[in-house]
Amino acid sequence: MPKRDDISSVLVIGSGPIVIGQAAEFDYSGTQACRVLREEGIRVILVNSNPATIMTDPDFADATYIEPITWEVIESIIAKERPDALLPTLGGQTALNAAIELDAHGILEKYNVELIGANLEAINKGEDRQIFKQLVLDCGADVAKSHIAHTVAEAVEFAEDLGYPLVIRPSFTMGGLGSGFAYSREELIRMVTDGLHQSPTTEVLLEESILGWKEYELELMRDTSDNTVVVCSIENVDPVGVHTGDSITVAPALTLTDREYQNLRNIGIDIIRAVGVDTGGCNIQFAIDPANGRVIVIEMNPRVSRSSALASKATGFPIAKIAAKLAIGYRLDEIPNDITKVTPASFEPTLDYVVVKVPRFAFEKFPAADTRLTTTMKSVGEAMAIGRNYSTALQKALRSLEKRDSSFHWNGEVGNKDELLALSSFATDGRIITVQQAMRAGATAEEVFDATKIDPWFIDQIALINEVAADVASAPALTAALLTHAKNHGFSDVQIADLRGMTEADVRDVRWSLDVRPVFKTVDTCAGEFPALTPYHYSSYDSETEVVPSDKKKVVILGSGPNRIGQGIEFDYSCVHASFALSDAGYETIMINCNPETVSTDYDTSDRLYFEPLTLEDVLEIIHAESASGELMGVIVQLGGQTALGLAQGLKDAGVPILGTTPEAIDLAEERGLFSAILDNAGLLAPKNGTATNQTEAVMIAENIGYPVLVRPSHVLGGRGMEIVYDSEALADYFDRVRDLVIISGTSPLLVDRFLDDAIEIDIDAIYDGTELYVGGIMEHIEEAGIHSGDSACTLPSVTLGRDVLNRVREATLAIAEGVGVRGLLNVQFAIGQGILYVLEANPRASRTVPFVSKALGIPLAKAAARVMAGSSIRSLVESGLLPILDGSNVPASSPVSVKEAVLPFKRFRTVEGNVVDSVLGPEMRSTGEVMGIDSNFPKAFAKSQEAAYGGLPDSGSVFVSVADRDKRAVILPVLRLSQLGFTILATEGTAEILARNGIEAQVVRKYFMGQELDAAEPSIVELINDGKVDVVINTPSGRSARADGYEIRTATVAADKPIFTTIAQLAAAVASFEAIREGFDVRSLQDYALDRAAELEKVAKNA
Fold this sequence. Notes:
Elements: E1 9-13, H1 25-39, E2 43-47, E3 63-65, H2 71-81, E4 85-87, H3 92-104, H4 107-110, E5 114-115, H5 120-127, H6 129-138, E6 146-149, H7 152-162, E7 166-170, E8 180-182, H8 185-198, E9 204-208, E10 214-222, E11 228-236, E12 249-251, H9 258-275, E13 280-288, E14 295-301, H10 306-315, H11 319-327, E15 354-360, E16 381-387, H12 390-400, H13 417-424, H14 431-440, H15 445-452, H16 456-474, H17 480-487, H18 493-500, H19 504-513, E17 519-522, E18 536-540, E19 553-558, H20 569-584, E20 588-593, E21 608-611, H21 616-627, E22 631-636, H22 641-653, E23 658-659, H23 663-670, H24 672-682, E24 689-692, H25 695-705, E25 709-713, E26 723-725, H26 728-738, E27 750-754, E28 760-768, E29 773-784, E30 794-796, H27 803-820, E31 824-833, E32 836-843, H28 850-857, H29 861-869, H30 874-879, E33 897-903, E34 929-935, H31 938-950, E35 958-962, H32 968-980, E36 984-987, H33 989-997, E37 1003-1004, H34 1021-1026, E38 1032-1035, H35 1045-1055, E39 1060-1061, H36 1064-1076, H37 1086-1103
Parallel strand pairs: 1-2, 1-4, 2-3, 4-5, 18-21, 19-20, 19-22, 20-21, 22-23, 35-36, 35-38, 36-37, 38-39
Antiparallel strand pairs: 6-9, 7-8, 7-9, 10-11, 10-13, 11-12, 12-15, 13-14, 15-16, 17-18, 24-27, 25-26, 25-27, 28-29, 28-31, 29-30, 30-33, 31-32, 33-34
């Protein structure tokens, strides 16, 4: 049936902040949905607390609410906006859980809002493990033997029946949180206790182990007329036991016979029917026992999932877009395929290429964490590659990860076969390289299969890659045939150079002189049967190219590659905006990226999309292909984070024009000595500093400057390897620890700075065109200096800085922009201590705060920056109305206040013993995402940001206080206020004594130290936290012994999901908010704030 006419407005729930297990793929699907619904003339109301995604830009919905995703807040939005329907299937588990709660509280009924895209019955059938199990059996398929436990005692009893090892899965959690394998009774008790806590329904499923089976997924869609299509089959290279988000996966499935595939397809269609998904997509996971072919169904997600994003990018079939159309009444056969325009969406896609996805991990950020992969997802991002065969796609995907040693290599001595096999028997990040090295050392396919249970076909492909490497190494000369042979198995110029003992540049010269160059094929959903109208390309060493010549002016935008901690979707946001802005200005935009989760790799974001690794070789080949026709204006490198910046110099050396800030100017800001000269000329101060190339030098410099010092390697993003060091002994220890992680040498020295205690950190984002500086916003950090800016909460406009400081910041930024020679975006970090303004660092590129600033003040920074890089002046952009008359350094007093808060992934990372890793923040970035709170004043906005980040602050209960000596004076007032608000105060002896002298009553609690006797009458603080008897923890770490009891207190708090404040500044902000939350939250859309702002600007213009 055609579109329903009874729906004129829809409320879409987003997925909130990016966390491990629920990342950018849901922003991608939500953004798609918003675009489709508006094209259909429907008013779209969006709620999402995440400022980093392009989805929460005011251009994508009619009313955008950046508010906490709780049923109470959503009720206020429904009461205000009165939508006809609610679409919850595109925001991951967050949105589904919110919809279930709205229904349970009777809100949908009260306001007569219809749930579209999924019905609650279908959600329950898919998510409730007991109902789903029965339903699968009724469809004639098989499931693993299982029991449901609601208490630890029940679990222990059921384990006797199932035998160890067994699988533990909490109900209704995302990304496998809390799930895993228990090999013994002790592990079972620990994991079930944790699982019952993580599950919103306090239930845990225990099931028989199917470790080592082959794992598959099918991505299906179904409409109201029972048309069902299988969009894509996906096979996990890693066997069962590794979460599918952490596994290397391949599409289409490669090791199934046609009969096995048809069987899975039939089971899948029966299940989607039985569950009753009839207006959208779903994903079903299967396991097959390689010994006898027994098929069991693991689980299904009755919503758009992580795999849907991968399936969409792999096939060119836009699942989220089509799901949104099905939700408003269309059938699959009524929706045209965007890519061919002639086939309907009820045609199943066919692929004439292979797609491989490889996860990207961040274990180096959590040195204490257990690196073994389990059913709890731990990866922070992923890269995808497309090739004409598996070996090409795999090698391209591995080099897209941009990590040292992520690609296959043949350097150095052959390792010890038995050691390598033993190592590969555990699934870890990079296991596939271990397997390749084991086979290089003589391991047979059978030995590898016994160790890893990876399907023999995939093992044989690695053997093939090793054979091609041997051919390349032993050939008398590099011929065209040999190079083509290597390229057809995905070898990069770097790998060939290593094998031949040449340089990468030499190999490239030989290859170009022999005219061995790639052509570009198209992703067309139909294996070439119909012409494709969208240029979505991948490289191949075939004979004919499918790139259509064009005579327009072209701009190439380099994306930011796979998400990782320190480089997330904030950079993708800037890339997408640049693409839209330059398209509007009449340029042809060309996007290069390899991240399947993002909006930039959507085939309709840019005029052309190349899904390729971001390495110099791959980018140069694309530029060569595009230069064949039309005029290439240049390449934009300042929006894709460190990934794109790293390619700037190589591209310039190859004669490719770089738009915006030149590579030389980028170096001025990175190189310590050159940058100091710029600051001296401008009369600006930096903290006392020096650069060291080895340990002896570092100790000398540090003792000269005076401890504490901040040390950091050069050329890193997200504060890799940054630490605060308190004495020479600790500095020696630092060198031991980072030896393998970062290179410290003459070309990339270690930077040593005086660490400013008690300074306020300030962040500014601005654009400079060579004559005029336009400030996006000046942010004030809530935590003091020394915490990475990506992890620190910050506020805009600033709430404690005077006009005088803001003017000094503006002037200093202008001086730096002129000195460096910036054209485009610039981010500078300052610290102000004892009234002195210090410059900490300057980055001539898009920073991670660009989206937050744009939303908080309504200034389209990324769009404007793209226009400036392409040659427009800031004046012309202000006159054309793209930029507001007043810039962000002058915020009217009546403006709302926005607070950005980081979301941290500590509870995903456990040590081998199962404890959470430490939650003290430092100069190395560890957050995966962020949320934003916006309201009329700071306490309300801060309260919203806390609610959105981890469920908010309690309004009563007990508060535990234990602070370092330097904070004892400052903590008295906030604690006094808490006790007046009715909280019970608990403290350790030293702190309690000081509180008592100031008239604050506190109960003394025993300190915790390792190996102490348990005393039931007097539990220690850690036991109290574990028993849920503490609601808020205030614990500031003291200097160097922060390891001791503070560590245990903080990890216990994180594991119990309770708010924890590790700085006095955070605490002061929170205390003000405790009062603000008692009245509940008011909600307002960004569009309404924009109207206020326009009225305010009009007044200013009149007065001027």
